[in-house]
Every structure is written in C-alpha cells, then in structure tokens.
Amino acid sequence: MPRRRTGRFGLLFHGRKIWISELTGMIFVAVFSIALIAFSGRIIHNEYTIHRLTGMITSGKSDRVMLSHFLDELRQRVAIAELLCSIVGKRLSSDLLLELSDIIYRNSSQFGYDPLLLLAVIKVESFFETNALGRYRSGSLSGALGLMQLKPATAREIAMQLNMDLLSEKDLFKPEINVILGVAYLTSMISRFKSFKLGLLAYNQGPGEVSRQLAEKRPLSVKYYQRVLRSYYAYKQRSIRLAAAKGKTAICR
Known about the structure:
Blueprint: E1 10-13, E2 16-19, H1 20-88, H2 94-111, H3 115-126, E3 133-135, E4 141-145, H4 152-161, H5 175-193, H6 196-205, H7 207-215, H8 223-245
Antiparallel strand pairs: 1-2, 3-4
Helix pairs in contact: 1-2, 1-8, 2-5, 3-8, 4-5, 5-6, 6-7
C-alpha cells in the first residue's frame, strides 16, 4: 500500500530527520540570540562610553572650579601686595613685602577677616615695622613687640592654645609668627566680648581694663578703635583706586 504524503518536507541531518519549519525556527532563534547579544554589547559599550565621558566632563568642571579659585586667590594676593606697596613704598624689601602680603592673605582667609582690616590694625600698631618696640606715652618701653605689638606673656598664652612651641622674644619679630598670634588673640578678644568694637579695644587696652570700664560704667576710650577704622576705610578707598587703575600704575617697580 503506497505511503501517504504529508504537507511537510523532511531533511536528513546527522542521521536524524528534522523538518524545514523547525530548522527555520532554530535559525531564527540563533540569529535573534546573536543580535540580542550584539545589541546588549552595544548598550554596555555605550553605557561605558557615557560613564567615561561623564567622568571627563565632571573632572573638567572640577578643574575649571579649581582654576577659577586659584585665579581668584592670585588676584587677591596681588591686590594686597599692590596696596601694601602703595602704603609703605620702598621701606620694605621686595621679599619682605611679598612675605607679609602672603601672611596677611592666609591669616585673613583662615580667621575670616577682610585683609584690609588686618593691614589697618598692623598700621596702627607698628606701621609695618617688623622690629617695632612698643612704648607708653611716657616714652618707656611697654614690652609689646613686632608687627602686631604682642607682649611675650600674651603671645605664649596664645601659642599654647594653638599648640605651638613656647616662644622666645626674638620669635615675635618674625612676621609669620607675630601675625598669626596677633590675629588669633584679636579673634579671642572679639569672641570673649561678643563685639568687634569691644574686642578691638581689649586687644589694645587689655581685656581686664575693658571689663573694668564696663563694670564701672565708665565711658570707653575709643580712640584706638577710631584710628583703626579710619585706616581701614582709607585702605578701602585706596584699593578701589588701584583696582580702577588696572595695572597702569608702576607701584613699587
């Protein structure tokens, strides 16, 4: 009896019969799997590229921020140096002037002061004489030393608070040591009296004297405070004029 034909065609493959429809399905699955793997690989590659580019962009932004900060810092240092130069002229050597400008910048940044205020205090205290010796009105020595006119006992007390080594009197003639201790002492006085004005007066007269004046309700002697403010506002105006000149002047050159 003849065998009936079906509507499917067989194919001999390794000794086994499979149908063309199944083979087509297998090929389709294989092609789809390969395409899926390739697509997944492409996605992974794109994700990696995006991640790398994002990192580069972020790094670039960070570099720009750092560069901007550096340029701003440099401008401030130059402005302080130009102002200081216009104040003292050639009384200070170039090296000392640059050193003092750097010290003023770093301490004003660290303690949160306008650098012009520190310049005003130093001007009133010593007129930028690194070896200045303080004197009373009578002419006798007061014992205050250096740029910010610190007495050795006060300087040692502040140095201990800052975990600095105990100082000799000669150390107070070094600008960096004198200024950092002076600014720290001024900050402690402002904090103690919770007032910039009273803190500045205590820096000059001593905290005990200011406390007595307040306790006895005596009028405060504010001449020192007024002198510092006059110098500060004068330096403000001078710095504005220097900035407006935009390098056209030949200060200390």
